[in-house]
Amino acid sequence: MKKKLRKRIDGFSGKTHFALSLVIMELCLIVSIYPPITSKILSSLFLLIVCTISLAGGALLVDLDNDESTAKYSSGLLGLMMTLFMKSTSSMVWNIYHFKGDRKPPTQHRYLWHAPIIGISMILLFYFGIPTGDYNIFTNMRNSADGMISEFIKNNAILVLFILLIFLAILVGSSMIYRNLTKVVHLPPILKYILPIFSLIYVFTTTYTNLRIIGVCLGFGYLLHCLEDMFCDSSIPLIFPIPAIWKNKVWWKPHLPFTVTTGSTVNGIIDIISGILALVLFFVVLAVR
Q1: Residue numbers in the chain where pLDDT is lower than 70
Q2: Buried/exposed code over 174-207 (b: 16+ C-beta within 10 A; e: otherwise)
């Protein structure tokens, strides 16, 4: 029976990750789980919108280690390059670091880049690596050796990484938000382009203090996706890079008693419930601002 259940019901689709991650973010905002960040997000409607898009996009970027992903199709050539990078680095790390109990995987999907340590590292990197202040990226670029881009890149490695990832996240997140909203209400097609353009302009013109918060939301979305994939049949390497000595494995993937298959009835029910909750809770967030 257990085998049958697992076979019938093995992972979440992109829209499921999108909705579930938004629900968790909105609950964190409503209960103000970490006031220094949540209160700041709630103080500005623009920041709230960009943080929402960034978290949604971050929750979808994880699956760029897979050839068939929502993020890859939403981000064009840049998404393809990220997929190639993630697959090759995951394969390289697996070949270098594994134990006898680890079986070579057929693909690198849900291996290195699905380890929670990646999402946690992103949160810490952007929180501590992006400085606070009232100046913005444009100001910083102008002050970097008379506007030399190479000088800016050399002196702002973490910020450059943030710009690359946030660009991808905004493309993917705004595309998913637009697609889901059009299922509920009629929206003008131009909004599909306004959302990412507005968000990118905001990122380049807002303060570094706000950029730090956006970076945390991006990393939090990434981490939520990894944890949500605990419910898929193949699970994730939960404690990587710490080896599971008792299993003689580096890439130990703990399994829950039940899993969810993409496109299954269970997945569809979760999509409906989480989608409705995400929409309702967003209005609750607006009300408690």
Answers
A1: 1-13, 144-148, 262-263
A2: bbbbbebeeeeeeeeeeeeeebbebbbebbeebb
What's the rounded Cα separation, in Å, for the pair 114 and 24? 19
**Side chain identity at residue 265, one-letter code:** T
Q: pTM, whole model, 2 decimals?
A: 0.91
> What's CA 75's distance to the chain center, in Å?
14
Query: How confident is the model over 231-244, as pLDDT tens digits?
Result: 887 889 999 999 99
pLDDT at 68: 80
Amino acid letter, 245: I
